[in-house]
Amino acid sequence: MTSLPYKNSDKNKKQQVAEMFNNIAYRYDFLNHFLSVGIDKIWRYRAINILKATQPKQILDIATGTGDFALAALRLKPQQIIGIDISEGMLKVGREKIKRKGVNHLIDLQLGDSENLNFKSESFDALTAGFGVRNFQDLDAGLAEMLRVLKPKGTAVILEFSQPQNFPIKQLYNFYFHSVLPLFGKIVSKDSSAYTYLPESVSVFPYGNAFLERMQKAGFINLKIKQVAFGIASIYVGEKLG
Predict the structure, then answer these.
(1) What is the CATH number of the domain that holds 62?
(2) Residues 6+ apart with CB under 8 A from 232
């Protein structure tokens, strides 16, 4: 089962996702931080901390968007971070942020397809993905590509929305996600589909152990999951066999 941003479009999911993010790129950062009350920054901080022990030098950030995860990864003091995304609009915003911060010599944002990565096998020490794998057209192909470009013993850290199960967080989450967020997102972004697609895509995405099973199927080992914010999001960790 899959969800699409534009139900009446003849384009495939990948094309629709790129179009959607191009449409909302200019307001994405504001909406992202406002609608999450800034908690998304804490989630990224916790995800990046998982990589501190391995001190990766070459990092790939999948579905980098405007580069928030790539910027957060600078705390690891890597030699280089490459971020890829299918939305040129999002990348343009990200490049401007990186230039303003004076770190464009460390972070390189590139247009690219996460399910068909334009990198040699075993190129990266670590890989990050923040709220992006849910948008893959073919999740298994995307995970297989992640594993391919990781070096042996490399680590993948994936941050993604999940679905809280405990009262009253579940009820509050569902009300906010399905009622408040789409309305506010529509008003601010001017795209009536983008913030309706978000809760729909989360509702059909395999989360928790179901997602770990997909990572295991792709070939990742030493799998772990860390829930954040009472299960609103999850951090998935997997390694490549050494």
Answers:
(1) 3.40.50.150
(2) 161, 162, 164, 169, 173
Give the residue from 130, 113, 172, 105 showing the smallest Cα distance to 42. Answer: 130
- The C-alpha angle with vertex 25 and arms to 19 and 28, in degrees rounded to 5, equals 125
Total number of domains in the chain: 1
What are φ and ψ of residue 164, in 5° steps? -65, 145
pLDDT value at residue 136: 97
Residue 227, strand partner residues: 234
Please check whether residue 62 lies inside any domain of the structure.
yes
Supply the range of the domain harboring residue 61.
13-239
CB atoms within 10 A of CB 208: 15
Question: How many other β-carbons are positioned within 10 Å of the β-carbon of residue 52?
Answer: 11
Q: 196 — alpha (psi -120 to 50), left (phi > 0) or beta?
A: alpha
CB atoms within 10 A of CB 242: 8
Answer positive or negative: Cα dihedral of 50, 54, 56, 62: negative
- pTM of this structure: 0.95
Read off φ and ψ for residue 156, nearest 5 degrees: -110, 130
Note the pLDDT of residue 178.
87
